[in-house]
Amino acid sequence: MFEFLWKLRWYFKENKWKYTTIIGVLLIANVLEVIPAQLIGRTIDFIGNGEMTERLMWQLVIIFLAVTVLTYTATYIWSYLLFDGAKKIEGIIRMKLMRKFLLLSPSFYERNKTGDLMAKATNDLRSVNMATGIGLLTLVDATSFMLTIILVMGFTISWQLTLFALLPLPILAIVEQRLGKKINEAHKESQEAFSVMNDSVLEIVEGVRLTRSYVQEKAENNRFKGMTDDYLQKFMKVERLDALFRPLTVIVTTFSFMVAFGYGAVLANRGIISVGDIVAFNVYLNMLVWPMFAVGMLFNVMQRGNASLTRIDEVLDTEDDVKHQGNMMMTNAGMDFDKLSFQYPLSTRTNLQDITFELKSGETLGIVGRTGSGKSTLVKQLLKFYPEGEGGLVIDGKSIAELDKKALREKIGYVSQENILFSRTVRENILFGNPEATEAELEAAIALSALDTDLKRMPQGLDTMVGEKGIALSGGQKQRISIARSLIRDPDILILDDALSAVDAKTEKRIIDGIRRNRTSKTTIIVTHRLSAVQHADLIAVLDDGQVVEMGTHETLSATGGWYSQQNDYYRTGGETI
Q: Which pTM value belongs to this model?
């Protein structure tokens, strides 16, 4: 419980006056809440002693109403401030989590499933909100209210009766603490099962068309049912443990009432306390039911919140593989690979080995090779997606380790194989590359990417919604929107990673010719399976198993009799792809 509060000490420190006010007003409310019981006890004694008068009765009624109004006002103030703080904590942690998601390198997402990350951003954050709202409410209110009632019972009625009536409480605290630890462990297992189920939902929704085409609906439904049952069992384990709190509290309070009535009668017969004192004492004891139950709920909510915050902190404490040690800017797009070798963090083999070549600013590099030969891995080195490998990679005369990551990426226009589009309009997807672009720059990017013809056939043109992940578009249209998004930046280095695979030969030629005309002084890198897309390149690198096996222009490579020449002969005789 206190571990959870310690983890959030940064927020409580920043808002110390707010929480000081909450505690102060809450203590006032607690004192006000015990007054009605005193009034009831005194009223009974006044009636029993024949001292009740009409004036005294109205005084008691007025005091009772005033206390009720003041209690309501104080409770409203502290509860509003408390739950407002809980929402703000949730919002701050959610923003920190989102900021972390945006900054972490791809290797982090290779180690963590999307469903688990979504569970942390939803279910776990809700648990933290509950702990900082309901949890703090029960911690401060229950403990202070319980202490206030006990003190009033002891000092105004009888400390002997109070002592005997509260003897079962330590047993309740011990059992609830042990239950809380079990709930913490069970909640972690439940959240992990929810993450697995969440990830499965994403896979099923994204692959629904593939599932239907292979008639695997029943198999997928059964697989998901198994995950749902597993989550339900683990969730119900938490609920079963949670359900033990209420009956345990009822049993303890029942024993307390038995002691209060029995020993209270003895004290009344001895003349130590009055009948009104017994009634008031039992009212107080009845008021203790809520804080005693709340203590049990406190362990439950706090343990869940602590388990969830631990899972969230695992993400927030994750160090990015690519450090922000670079502080130099890039002004020139020339690059030099000097025996560069690289291995993915989770890979068991070297993915790039001894890559050596030089590309001058303004030149075009073509990268070809078999599937899985390391083409995409090579261009990703320029984006600083992963830690630097061995050997050297120099851009603009500076080691890539010296270049600022953000500044470097701002100079690069990258079109990946995935062609990720947002569920927005075509215009918004293109302007994502440069939100400040003018209408003329937008039209130029559309023309260069050969998207203008397709726009005329779209129902709302540039304002057409593309659907989630571009589901409403063809593969070629998605690729051209991605290319336009990159071209609108007018980058110093343009990287097309197999970005023309879904367009026809005529459209490909139009795009390539447009890029050649408009980017004569800027560097372009084209990764492709089509030799026609790189025949004009100043330099072509052929990769195989992470190594450069051939290097040269289209003319020189076509005459060597190597892999490139064989593929070119195949292309000239009617084949289109490698």
A: 0.70
